[in-house]
Amino acid sequence: MPSLPLKSHNYDFLLPLIHSMYDEIIVYDDNYQIVYVNNACQRHYDCSPEDMIGKSFFDFVDRNCWNNSILPIVYKEKKAYAIKQKTFIGTELFTIAVPIFDLRGNLTYVIMNVRDHLSGIPLYNPNYSYQSSKPEAIPEIIATSFKMKHVMDITTKISTIDVSCILTGETGTGKTLLAKYLHFISHRSEFPFISLNCASIPTSLIESELFGYEKGAFTGAHTKGKKGLFEVAHGGTLLLDEISELPLSAQAKLLHVIQEQSYLPIGANIPVSVNVRILAATNKDLKTQIANGLFREDLYYRLNVVEIYLPPLRERREDIPELVNRFLTHFNFKYGYSKTITDNAMTLLCNAEWKGNIRELRHVIERIVVTSDSPIIDAVHLPSAISNNNNMSLYFTTTSPGSSFDSKVEEYEASIIKEAYQQYGSSRKVASHLGLSQTRAHKLIKKYVH
Hints:
By secondary structure, the chain is α/β, with parallel strands linked by helices. It is built from 19 helices and 16 strands.
């Protein structure tokens, strides 16, 4: 083996070595963007380096790739930290994040060293094992609105009955969380809750994931075989998320499992008996899928003993204040802040469209917490898509039914001036903020504020 050119000033040989390290090495620039990650990311997040490089930290937060992160704290405090994490595929990580500075003392990069449990490498002290700090708690679901109270009533009623159930609703409405809640209030709570996103697994692998395989069942199979998720979930609950994406071949085998409570792993001769409650979730109309020949009608009726529809956030606006406060408390604790939110900002959040539903709201609150400099979150800190689109509709729709056009415009003008003066406190700053002359700003403040 040739010696490494350690005394050379050409360090190009180092990059392939770093790329092949067992530990994950991930580098962020000074604004949450990933500029490098090595091959270990595939083991941790089921993503290739090409999938991650060039993307924002927040892209992966939105996908819940890990349960917490130290990156915003390192940016804020400009010093190294270590943290324990768990990824969405269940990998437990220990991460050390170190800020890198230029000659002027400006933070330019954050480099992270990420280690998981060893795989295929002998361990010198094999008696050591990781112990979870606490058991998983029953998920808390906000249900102030009438529609969500109805959802919770149905969920409670079927929790004691082992029937299959389909959870329907738009993306981000909380179908997975409700499935977990249903599992943890049922008699199956002491057994596993397993969730599989059917859209995230290649068609060629979906059956081996669900039903497992015997050793040597096919080229590339693990020498010891593999348990399927049905066997892993035995006694508990299996959630098949995005069930509409399940291939027809797997649908036929799933129907057999539901009917017979047994199945044959790939390459096996002896059936495996299972006792699993099956929940399915989808954001598509399965009846349309049936009409188009993409979903089996017999499987639909087997799964759809009970259907629970989760309304979009715009149909349950009464729940938004409590959701906002819960997310704010969570991210304050997670990132070490104590931020509060004004009534004005809360009103704007309650009147937003939220096409991404709860997932989008959660993402917005986290982004505001980690990026705003003020301890008080006001309208100015909200994304422009929310504040700009809501202001006019909000103030125009809250005027009295008989108001004229001129009076509505005047009310809207008053709201803008009052909000700007409350935030900036002087006619000069209000004028600069709104793009007015100071004389006009002074007149408007005198008209609407004093």
